[in-house]
Amino acid sequence: MNAISPSNTIRTGTSAENLRQAFLDNLVCALGRLPNYASAHDHYLALALTVRDHVVARAVQSFEQGVVKMMRRVAYLSAEFLPGPHLANHLLNLGIAEATREALGGIGIDLDRVLAEEEEPGLGNGGLGRLASCYLDSLATVEVQSIGYGIRYEFGIFDQVIRDGWQVEGTDKWLSGGNPWEIHRLGIAKQVKFGGHTETWTDDQGRTRVRWVPSIVIKGEAYDTPITGYGSGTCSLMRLWKSEAVESFDFEAFNHGDYDRAVEQKVDSENLSKVLYPNDELHRGKELRLKQQFFFTSCALQDMLRLVAMSGGKVAAFDESWAVQLNDTHPAIGVAELMRLLVDEHALEWDDAWAITQKTFSYTNHTLLPEALEKWPVELFGSVLPRHLEIIYGINHRFLDEVRTAFPDDDARLARLSLIDEHGARYVRMANLACVGSHKINGVAALHSELLKKTVLADFAALWPEKFDNVTNGVTPRRFVALANPGLAGLLERELGAGWPGDLSCLGRLEPLAADPGFRREWREVRLANKRRLAALIQERTGIVVTPDSLFDVQVKRIHEYKRQHLNLLHVLSLYLSIKRDPDAGVVPRTFIFGGKAAPGYFLAKRIIRLVTATGELVNQDPDVAGRLKVVFFPDFNVKNAQHIYPAADLSEQISLAGMEASGTGNMKMSLNGALTIGTLDGANVEIRDAVGAENFFLFGLTASEVSALKAGGYQPQTYYESDSLLRETIDFIASGALGGDPDLFRPVVDNLLHGDPYLLLADFRAYLDAQQRVGELWGDSDAWTSSSILNVARMGRFSSDRSIREYCERIWNVNAKPSQT
Ligand SMILES: *Cc1c(COP(=O)(O)O)cnc(C)c1O
Q1: Residue closest to 768 by CA, chosen among 566, 622, 494, 632
Q2: CATH number, residue 563
Q3: 302 falls within a domain
Q4: Average pLDDT of 4-32?
Q5: Count of alpha carbons within 13 Å of 820, Cβ hemisphere only?
Q6: Catalytic positions, written as ranges
Q7: Residue 479 lies inside a defined structural domain of this protein
């Protein structure tokens, strides 16, 4: 029965009239507000509830399709999601943005003000979580049934404020204003066990089985957020788990008069999904993090088993119902958990269960840093997950036999491949578990995937070359072009037709317009309007006044030494010193915009933020550089702010040390909006440069192999310092105390560079300055710059996440995506 047909009820009708009535009904009946007393936030909630009806109506129909057709569905397991505000995205995807604007306009309410009220769910640290959200968007758009499973953190990534130039972390209160997008699925709850011990028992067929007797059981409750697709009836579901105490447990203690223990257990249980870990190396080995990972992964797999039963599938053919993607190693414990569920709870034979497991999982690696590969002390692991440790030993035992056959008498190789690290203290290696349990392993950009096979996963690549693949990341053009850059969207719609966000390959048709003076003028006007809007926002948030017609030179991303925000600062300060020395120095007017959060425990990253703000304090006041240099730290870089910043960037700073950035997606977002990139041959920069053409990209710096060679030969930063007078002058200036008024303030940064310089800033400094010189020259030729900007957009179509998702569907998941138009 088709319970709701989309356009015939007040709740889901799509005319302006209908939307207005539904909005007013929600304001009064759902929120209890009379229109005359409603705040902007009430307007937001009422509109969100209105749009939610449309979204949920689609979601339930989409879901039913999946059950009826019994197609293979995709489960995207990710400890992080960074969806950004939902409302505007749904309006676009549902095609009701204009009708909604009219509906509200008719009663004196401005849609943009309403949209600005939405708080975003900050359930991720940065690129990895944002990728997961782009993929759910694209899965819905290409009409693949999918669920993104994760954790409903009560407190997501901290809010960043800048106080006296320093980052101060505030608690994220994303749920405090209410969350109209989620549906608490009271009927969908899973029990997750922890601790205790295992026992063997004999079943009625005389088989020896294992039973896990936990010391604690926690309940996971499902909260669903539907994710619409662009012009598609399919919805993805983001299903996040919130931890709760299991009533029976605390009541038992309570009844025995042990009130404290009952309360303690309840608090412990609820703490599991309380807070997102900032990505900070110092948190390695934290028990709560392991528990979080197991918690959501176990809930997800149990839920998938429930859905198999619901759609009449067979547990013994689990892999025909589900393709499960591991977004990094955070959910890698799922390999052992699926084995446990199949063998212990569904009585499958080990070998059958193992075949299913390998066909089910695939693993996306996100890092080349050996020290960033997750591992857990065996002791800790065994105390939290005793049964999983046994299963991992079982997997390892059989796996190492296979290795011995392929590579006889190679103990060193065995030790490297083993799921257990036995050098000194023993650890469970999660990347190895993910590799062994998956049929496909992919990196996130061509260079990254190649380096993976040569470095951290070399032994697995030698054993199973056919498992390795690359899927270069992509970004959703709906959020990051159509919504973020309405001016550009208008031009694209006029030139390419209204459906362009669903098929970015059509961007290629812009190419001839790069030579059209009239089009170039319109292009510049759009870009200038974006920069004006950002300038206003900068003034509002920081008090700094910037000039919209200066070159907006932008580096926004997490603050990390490998991303080299401090290399950017060396350039800024070198320009400052050059102008001070020679007031006629040919420096084009630039506004340097930085943004990004530093992990709270990352000392140097926080110093780098302070170095940006101290540079701003110096430069922005100095009449000698007025009109030529401005430096801004834009606080609280998140998806919402990103949507304002990316479209206003003229120059995209992608200057990580080659071999360090797995892919990057900020690089794609900026180029897709018309920025030119200055960058190293790192991550997806390589492919972006290939796509847009070397002449439209400012390349500099060592290659990944030159980096390895330089490090192997004993890198000496001092030699660069001594031989380059501008570099020396710039570093000495930082060390002098001229910035921030305290010579000790940046001593740690200077010492780090002069005595070690692990990310080779000094080696790349001169090449970076030369490339920046070329940037300045091209900026001086406004027509040439604009052509290049147009060509960047025209040639970036391949970086839509729709393309990435189609590749996953074809080569990794073996599911059918809606074919692309071309
Ligand atoms: C795209 C994005 C990132 C990733 O940026 P990179 O430049 O690839 O590191 C991080 N945070 C937010 C909010 C983003 O939108």
Answers
A1: 566
A2: 3.40.50.2000
A3: yes
A4: 86
A5: 22
A6: 366, 557-558, 563, 665, 669
A7: no
Q: What's the token pair of residue 769? A: 């300055």
State CA 177 to chain mean position distance: 24
In a domain, 708, yes or no: yes
Q: Which atom of ligand 1 is nearest to the CA of 646?
A: 15
At 3 the pLDDT is 47
Give the rounded percent of residues in the chain with a pLDDT score beyond 70: 97
Q: Kindly state whether residues 468 and 589 are assigned to the same domain.
A: no
Q: Where are the alpha helices (DSSP H) in 125-189?
A: 127-141
Give the helix ranges, DSSP H, for 693-810: 704-712, 717-723, 725-735, 747-754, 761-780, 782-794, 801-807
Number of domains in the chain: 3
Same domain, 439 and 312: yes
Q: Which atom of ligand 1 is nearest to the CA of 654?
A: 7
Taking the C-alpha atoms of residue 337 and residue 302, their distance in angstroms, rounded to an integer, is: 9
Residue 2's pLDDT band, with cuts at 50, 70 and 90, is: very low
Identify the three-state secondary structure at position 678. strand
Rounded to the nearest whole angstrom, what is the distance from the C-alpha of residue 667 to the centroid of ligand 1?
Answer: 9
At residue 258 the predicted structure's pLDDT band, cuts being 50, 70 and 90, is confident
CA–CA distance, 300 with 472 (Å, rounded to integer): 26
Q: Is the CB of 156 under 6 A from ligand 1?
A: no
Classified as helix, coil or strand, 723 is: helix
Measure the CA–CA gap between 327 and 576, rounded to whole angstroms.
43
Q: Per-residue b/e over 584-597, b at no fewer than 16 CB within 10 Å? A: eeebebbbbbbbbb
Tokens 């990347």, located at residue: 431
- What is the Å distance from ligand 1's center to 126 Cα? 5
Asked if 111 and 158 sit in the same domain, the reply is no
Ligand 1, atom 9: closest residue by C-alpha: 557
Q: Hey, what are 523's tokens?
A: 């292009």
- What Cα–Cα distance (Å) separates residue 288 from each residue in 80, 93, 270, 300, 598? 16, 38, 12, 18, 22
The amino acid occupying position 640 is: K
pTM beyond 0.90, yes or no = yes
What does the pLDDT look like over 344-402, one tens digit per residue? Answer: 999 999 999 999 999 999 999 999 988 889 999 999 999 999 999 999 999 999 999 99
Q: Does one domain contain both 81 and 104?
A: no
* Four-residue CA torsion sign, 311, 312, 314, 320: negative
Q: Which two tokens stand for residue 739?
A: 């910035």
Grouping H, G, I as helix, E, B as strand and the rest as coil, residue 172 is: coil
Tell whether 383 is covered by a domain.
Answer: no
Cα of 757 from ligand 1 centre, angstroms: 25
Q: Distance between the two ends of the chain, CA-based, in angstroms?
A: 36
For residue 677 and ligand 1, the question of a CB distance below 6 A is answered with no
Is there a single domain that holds both residue 693 and residue 737? yes
Tell me the CA–centroid distance for residue 465 and ligand 1, in Å.
31
How is 231-282 classified by DSSP, letter by letter? Answer: T-S-EEEEEEEEEEE-HHHHHHHHHTT-HHHHHHHHHHHHHTTTBPPP--GG
